Amino acid sequence: MSAQVLRSTRASRSALWVGVALVLVAASMPWWAESSWMREFVEIACYFIFAMMWNLLAGYGGMVSIGQQAFFGFGGYIMLLLGNYAGFNPFVAIPVAALCAALISIPVAWVAFRLQGGYFAIGTWVIAEVFRLSFANMSFVGGGSGTSLTALRGIEKATRESVTFWMALVCVVASIALVYLFLRSKQGLALLAIRDNEVAAESQGIGVQKMKLAVYVVAAFGAGLAGALYFVGNLRISPDAAFSVNWSAFAIFMVVIGGIGRIEGPIVGALVFWALNKFFSDYGTWYLLGLGLLAIVVTIYFKQGLWGWLQQRRGWALFPTQRPLVTYACDGRAATPMRAAASAICFIEIMAGSCRKKRR
Amino acid sequence: MLETLIQGLLLGGLYCLFALGLSLMFGVMRLTNTAQGDFIILGAFGAIAATSWWTAHPALIGLLLLPVAFGFGYALQRYVLNGTLGKDPLPSLVVTFGLSIVIQNALLELFSADPRSIESGGLNTHSLQLGEGLAIGTLPLLIFAVAVLCTLALQLLFERTALGRAFRAVSDDKDIAELMGLDAKEVYALATAIAFIVIAIAGLFQGMRTTVSPSDGPLLLLFAFEAVIIGGMGSFWGTFVGAMVLGITQQIGFRLDPGWGIWFGHLMFLAVLVVRPQGLFPKTKA
Amino acid sequence: MSAALIQASGLTAFYGDAQALFGIDFKLNRGELVAIIGANGAGKSTFLKSLTGLVKVKPESVQFNGQPVGGLPPGAIVKQGLAMVPEGRRLFPSLSVEENLLMGAFAKRPGPWNLERLYAMFPILKQKKGNPGTALSGGQQQMVAIGRALMSNPTVLLCDELSLGLAPIVIKEIYDAMPAITAEGMSVVIVEQDVSVAQRVSQRVYCFQEGRVSLEGKSDELTREQISQAYFGL
After folding, report:
1. Which range of residues forms the domain containing residue B271?
2. What is the ipTM of this complex?
């Protein structure tokens, strides 16, 4: 029997082409779509990027945080400060703000990493509250009631909305690409190994603490990006909107519905969330109550999330980051794919220098 | 200055009641109850609803609320939360977070967003003279006394009773404890049931001392959590001390500026986390 | 139909996808002391865990007193009279010596074993009864672990690697207590890596090798050569 490490499935290859087509269609939207669609897309894009980064942190980094809104809001405020007071073009300020969020996440991590598990989660929430209270005490950004983004005042509305939309599209594609490529790389496999068994990974020479910090910083970058983008679209920022724990709640919801630890999970989750929002948000408290119940039920009965459940039933994988070992029967046809203890074996193979095709 | 200190201690008493349930559930089964604050508020609203149907003395209503809380906590753990336990902290976090949202919105639907309080028959305004113009509120003093009693009771429960032994054993090594004939599911449910008694007491006092509204929960959770971390995990007296420190810190902050109290508390929490991450009186192994 | 206390037939056990036991046939008669020997990873501990419910197996593959007990929760099996001294002692660090012993009595089975009797057998434990369980020497911890199992008044005692990490003189001290334990007819299964100790104290020996029984016989009849062949799978 010969063995080969698969890097992509047929389903994923066709999905790639579909994705490219979708992006091209979407990019043309400013010419034919209603402006409300574009505004909605920007909002959903922010939710999605935030959720995807939360997913990276929790599902792949093994760190569950309910305080990522600290970086979301921080990104928004930095963008505003750069735009209003430092003469930056707000669209240029978006990635810069994201970078600032990434930088501040380092001292935050230094404090937060002293906690583990559930207490780490709440600890990050406390830190987010500190951010909120700090900004609420700063009168030059409007204190508790917030302030407006004045830097975009001179631009015509249609242009502003189109550019915001394209910016959102770029951010979405960039985030997906960043996460996907990261997880397919050696660092990504190391991350999977850490997630599966920290002690074993450490003994293989992986700097666990460094990896965790790296993931935390990347996730903060993404959160800051989403925040800066959101408030460019919103034009108005306030501490309660920027640092609300609802951001984490929505991210958790999207990822739990879609499945933790999988890339396509947040996409599925964001779509479900958007659909639910569209049809039910008028029901206010009942809608939120329903969301809460849904999250509880899915967590208890569909431990893999909806997408994960489907994936198990049908063997789908749009964004394959597993490298299953496929064994071929002697006549060359593929036998049932053998998912060897995925990350550990693949990691060892990579470290050994190559994925060899063995032949008898 | 002395008055600030005393006020801080009394406030700490309340925070201790917020935190004991959290400490208990985490100690026995490593479960982080992110809905802790919301359950406290639920308890307060439960008492408010009961007083509106029934013109009995609030103390009597409070007493009757306790067995209800016990049963509720037992059922919650047995039928919902037991399924979320395991190495991964995410399921219990998501489920309790979901519960937090469900409770807040259910209360909002039932009671609207208006702040309410529990009629305490003047207890919340009554005060004791301690000479030299120093007056202490009777209710805060009562809360402090109850906090000491609850802490003592839990500590004795854990150290001297068979149930306490079972709690410690199952928290040390669940598999071997089951080998002794213990039913972990049952023990966990009892732990949560007891935690909910303290939660109900906390809710009653919170509702008597100030107004409550459906969305108050999360902030109470943060106070409870900070008290546990400052005090150090693994001992109830540690949680008590942590709550005292938090209360005093917040009072100092309030004195300096009304908007700074809570912020000061957060900063103290972060300071302890940086300087002495295991807390002031830690007793647990991971 | 024999009157075997424990009977395993064709027992297979898995850890996830990995198979650890490939069809074990085993018998323990009333009043016997049977030893199981074998190299590391041979499946000895897995077998004991299957007997006590820590590893789930098919119901009919293990019979205790004629009843199928495979796959039952550990608490249920203890209540029927099967107790284990786990590998590595696994005392409760948050409990004192006496509290550890009391935990053993959780199942509240009637019988001759109680604190006084244990303290008479292992006097050093009475001295240290208030100490945390893990603040004792290895040998003393082993005594606590044995005592804890005895407190449930079992009819069968399973001992997993009693000699692990202990000095020979301590091992002797522990096994010298065996006659006192079996005096009233308790049946015992010991898992041992030390072959000479196993042969000396037991009536029958099973040798496990890579998840299978490679040898079975009376302890005083098996030769050195037979055993090492079976042990190493030669």
Report:
1. 2-118+160-275
2. 0.90
